Amino acid sequence: MSDDRVYCCNKEATCNNYERSELVFFEQVKFEKGFVWEKWKTSGICWIFLLSGEAGVSIEDEVVFVEAGEMFLLPALKGKLKAFTPLEFLYFISDRPTEYCLKTVSELGCLEGRGELLEILPLNQLLKGFVEMLTVYLEDGVDCRYLFEEKQEELFVLMKSCYSKEQLSYFFYTLSLHKEGDLKKLIEDNCLHVKSVAELAQICGYSVSSFKRAFKEIFDEPIYQWILGKKADRLKERLSGEEVNLKEIIYEFGFSSPAHFTKFCKKWLGMTPTKFIEEQKMTGEHIDL
């Protein structure tokens, strides 16, 4: 008898969906006592569900004790986890929260944390069922990026259903605190090296619409104007240097032509680049770059 089933998420099939996304995925791991884990080198979420054993999470020179049946969020790009006993846990990485997930966190409002480095919640029955089903998927070799993106949203739905607003506020506070700081740094580090808002949003792991909202919350001004302002500030520094090569500056800042460069300077510096350089020489206001 022929088998007519479609193996859309089987690793032996040719389904394009069967590709591990580095932006959103779940993984189950086991470690021996004494093992130190610091795999969550991500600018986004690292969410741990402890299945068995005990561990210590080191953050900023302090150690927080965690045990089986608990879950917690790890601050982005920080800390390490050490197994005090044989350890098993499921972890969830997301550098691309969906709009529903971002909305869930933003709905909690501007809340203050309790000064804790790590907020821990016990797994209730629904969350235990969610984790158990995921472990079955993973043990059976299911590794579909679309499934994991759906599971990300399901996780946030369950969180809203199972825990109070106060519990969620404390739980997500660390995420919002560190995420905002990391996002701000990513934006500031890359804003002068991109050609569009879409490119900057992609670098930061957001859709364009979600990125614009997150940007507005951090900087409280339209992103396009902010980027142009940063570009103008940097341009002032370059034009105020001891040695100024206008051709190099035009190339460095991505201006399409000398005319485009001059037009930008007139709008943002109030004068042509040549006039700006002359005024800097007259006032002696040079910047050593």
From TrEMBL:
Keywords: DNA-binding, Transcription, Transcription regulation. Residues 181-279 form the HTH araC/xylS-type domain. It holds the Pfam family HTH_18. InterPro entries: Homeodomain-like_sf, HTH_AraC, MarA-like, RmlC_Cupin_sf. GO terms for molecular function: DNA-binding transcription factor activity; sequence-specific DNA binding. PROSITE patterns: HTH_ARAC_FAMILY_2. SUPFAM superfamilies: Homeodomain-like, RmlC-like cupins. SMART domains: HTH_ARAC (SM00342). This is AraC family transcriptional regulator. It comes from Odoribacter splanchnicus. The keyword Transmembrane does not apply.
